[in-house]
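> forwarded from #structure-qc
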């Protein structure tokens, strides 16, 4: 079993139930899924950029990404409808908890000049953050990376609002800034 999942069940969920006055464990906030995506705008001119992004994302998440395509044509960007422009992975279950554990304990501490994550939620309890480099994950070999590529990570939380999601992620170890 994933270390973070075990911690959620044994420590975090009882604290959340006590803090928010919940009687049923299923009513407590819990992670639903994590979506990791990489937009590769340069994929329209360089075919190798998208393949490198797919390889890096598969290495980081342990799951094969889906290639996302343009929804409409934009002549200013030399983009036609259905051209590949990025890749995306949706993690659930054990892989989701393992990825979040590596993100919190390994990748985020490797970010240069890190001062904590901002406490910005979307109003429905979901949290998104952006990483500037894929090389903060130790699985990605730095010497083989040709292009530094950023990624977006969205943590979707079930049964919660912004305050409950913040408390859940804080108890799981997410390093937020002090207000």
């Amino acid at each position: 079993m994933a270390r973070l999942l075990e911690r959620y069940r044994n420590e975090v969920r009882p604290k959340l139930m006590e803090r928010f006055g919940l009687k049923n464990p299923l009513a407590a906030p819990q992670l639903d899924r994590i979506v990791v995506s990489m937009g590769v705008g340069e994929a329209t001119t360089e075919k190798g950029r998208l393949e490198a992004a797919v390889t890096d994302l598969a290495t980081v998440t342990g799951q094969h990404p889906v290639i996302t395509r343009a929804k409409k044509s934009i002549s200013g960007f030399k983009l036609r409808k259905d051209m590949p422009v990025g890749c995306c992975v949706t993690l659930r279950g054990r892989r989701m908890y393992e990825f979040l554990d590596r993100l919190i304990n390994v990748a985020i501490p490797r970010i240069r000049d890190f001062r904590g994550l901002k406490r910005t939620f979307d109003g429905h309890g979901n949290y998104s953050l952006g990483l500037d480099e894929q090389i903060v994950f130790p699985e990605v070999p730095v010497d083989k990376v040709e292009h530094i590529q950023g990624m977006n990570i969205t943590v979707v939380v079930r049964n919660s609002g912004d305050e409950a999601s913040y408390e859940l992620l804080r108890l799981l170890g997410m390093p937020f800034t002090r207000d």
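QC bot note: The first strand starts at residue 30 and ends at 39. The radius of gyration is 18 Å.
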